Amino acid sequence: MTDTPVIQLVDVTKTYHLESGDFTALDHVSLEILENDFVAIMGPSGSGKSTMMNQLGILDVPSSGKLYIDGKDVAMLSSLERTHMRRDTIGYIFQKFYLIPLLSAYENVEYPLILKYKKRDTTGKASALLEAVGIDKDMSAHRPTQLSGGQQQRVAIARALVNDPKILLCDEPTGNLDSRTGFQIMDILCGLHREGKTVIIVTHDPNIAEYAHRTIRLVDGRVAES
Amino acid sequence: MMKGDIFFNLSVRSVRLNFLRSMLAAIGIVIGVVAISSMGMLGTNMQLEVKEQLSATANTIVISSDTVRMGPPGFNPSSSSASGVTKTELTKITSVVGTNGTVIPIYSTTGEFTINSVAGRGEIYGIDPGDIGKFLTLNQTYGNGTTEIGTGEVLVGSELAQEFNLKVGTRIRIGSFDSTSRPELRIAGVLQSRGTVADGVSTDNAVVVNSNWYTDQYGGKNEWTQVNVIVKDTDNISDIESAINDKVNTNAKTPAVRITDASSQLATETSTLSTVTTFIMAIGGISLLVAAVSIFNVMMMSVSERIQEIGILLSIGTEKGEVRRMFMYEAFILGLLGAGIGGAASLVIGYSVVDAMIGTTAYFFQPASILYVPAAMLIGVVVCVISGVYPAWRASNMDPIDALRSE
Description:
The complex is a heterodimer.
Chain A: E1 5-18, E2 21-34, E3 38-42, H1 49-56, E4 64-69, E5 72-73, H2 79-88, E6 90-93, H3 105-117, H4 125-132, H5 137-140, H6 149-161, E7 167-171, H7 179-194, E8 198-202, H8 206-209, E9 214-219, E10 222-225
Helix pairs in contact in A: 3-4, 3-6, 4-6
Chain B: H1 6-17, H2 19-55, E1 60-65, H3 87-97, E2 101-115, E3 118-127, H4 129-135, E4 153-156, H5 158-163, E5 171-174, E6 184-190, E7 207-210, H6 211-218, E8 226-231, H7 237-248, E9 257-261, H8 262-305, H9 307-315, H10 320-358, H11 367-370, H12 372-396, H13 400-405
Parallel strand pairs in B: 3-7, 4-6
Antiparallel strand pairs in B: 1-8, 1-9, 2-3, 2-5, 2-8, 4-7, 5-6
């Protein structure tokens, strides 16, 4: 782990304007996540975990405060620059896998490469990653619906890694898997952390949080413990 | 390039996944393309047919006495226009035309003739031998003829020659069968077939005699049935016509002569035909409008069924423009499917319609006609693409968080 913060939140507040009144999902949150950190974000429902994930994933911008990802102030980026950052700097792993149903497992992994280089993959990187997460050639020709949950999550991890992002954002990565498969997935994530990735996991499960080096607890939009 | 494009592949797969729905929407485009192109082709083929028939004499102005305006029965017109174009009028016409054309005065009447003791009836034209060659040509397969006919000679039309097995040198008697005076003339040539013409000289079933012989036989010297003006440059035709009209028809209420030409006839017919064609094509266009609505509907369904997928695409770094492109491709594929099938169907249906309605498909593959197929196909594709603009825009502007959350 280095001392360079790859993610930095300075007094970040996120307020949603609802018909029933304003709702503050993140309330003056400040924290730093260093490069090659392994962080678990925990908290009860409604504590602001998802809002935090959306901020870290640059799917949303803070209402106030500063958010720096890889040294860049997210609020100052254009919509296109944020899109490119999602593509190049962050790898997402979702609870529901979120693979593209019309594409095969292989094409799902190849997809971010095509987005980045505007051409099909000729380097063999997509195949190599699929093999590394335990998806063989036969399986990689299948559509997501033809794969088990564990297999789909492996494909999703390969997809998240293919553009070599600094940050891996994992939103309940084992939430839809049986515990044995869940641990296998966690082993893969631990391996990636060892290889130098910054891993951030949102989870309810204390067993999963134990893998992390640091746990951030959110309560009512505030950091209760870090 | 498009083939390797992952967004194009995604669109193809989406269309394939919802094949029935996509095809039903594309059928609207098929119908629209068929309607527009077959109607367009039908109209154009009619125009080409008429044009072809009239074009041979498109450079000719026909001036005849205005018999229509002779007045009520018993009314004796003060001018002599009723019995033909007069010498004075001819002089005026000649001076107006000058070097811009050739003036050919023509006598004509319906008469009887006898060939090999078989009687016939047809038009008899009396034309100055020097003028005949200016607009009539001979078919030399019937023997070496000449248009420079003397008073004892005659030219016969192609159909007449064929029917009575005539050739140069054969004799023909002109005059009614029971008449005592039935002069015998020598056939000096057989005329080329002319078909439908707009210059008033239909020679296929007629005979052409020397104008001097004609007036000796029928009288009416210097009272021509019609005067044809063959202009050098068809662009000047209307200028010459109005000049003649100004000079000869001095009294606007009782014009002495009527002036017509193939182009005005053609223009009238073409304009009528093209109005009708446009009208029918517009009706065909309505079907494309209906098709546009159904394409729009299908595209909106495709977008709303794939909200979560759009959310995934956007959240992992797909640009808005790329999402937009994916849906525009989908609309384009639907358009291409519809237009492709429509284009093929147009060829078959259009050909049958033209054959049934006009009786000939001689002009079907001419550019002016066949171009309606690609044009209608293009319109079909454009309509589809336009219908896809809003759904594509909507898809690309979704909030990825909301889109991901939708089930």
